[in-house]
Amino acid sequence: MNIRKLAEGLYIAPQLTQADAADAAALGIRSVICNRPDGEADNQPDFNQVRQWLADAGITNTAHQPVTAPAINGQDAARFQALISQAEKPVLAYCRTGTRSALLWAYHQVQNGLPAAQAVAAVKQAGVDLSSFEPRLQAAATNGLPDK
């Protein structure tokens, strides 16, 4: 199991497997957000398959918000935060490695006053290195993210 706590009520993970779905249910996860596009890799289960695994494990609150890290914009960050806000907690967000999900969280945090270095440090505690994104996070804190 590679499910890591990022913040109160929010966990992140790399691509989920059937075993991970059961582990998430055992942790008490109530909602799952997938930030990985279907078909990104040949050996990747599509979101409908993961959704079925989650449902079989008792988790039926799911959302698919596929993004790619270089193209994340203000609408993506706002939608991610809205999904988390509206979801039954705790929430698990996942992508290929957990980086995109953590980055979406970090963008929202810096736009609400958390210094970029602190956002990067918080994410690092959850096992994800966003140091290469720190300049973009700093820019987002100052100027916001482009809407598209």
UniProtKB/TrEMBL annotation:
Q: Which residues form the Beta-lactamase hydrolase-like protein phosphatase-like domain?
A: 3-110
InterPro entries annotated for this entry? BLH_phosphatase-like, Prot-tyrosine_phosphatase-like
Q: Name one GO molecular function term.
A: hydrolase activity
| Transmembrane segments annotated in the record for this chain | none
Source domain of life: Bacteria
Q: Which SUPFAM superfamilies match?
A: (Phosphotyrosine protein) phosphatases II (SSF52799)
The name of this protein is Beta-lactamase hydrolase-like protein phosphatase-like domain-containing protein
Q: Which organism is it from?
A: Neisseria musculi
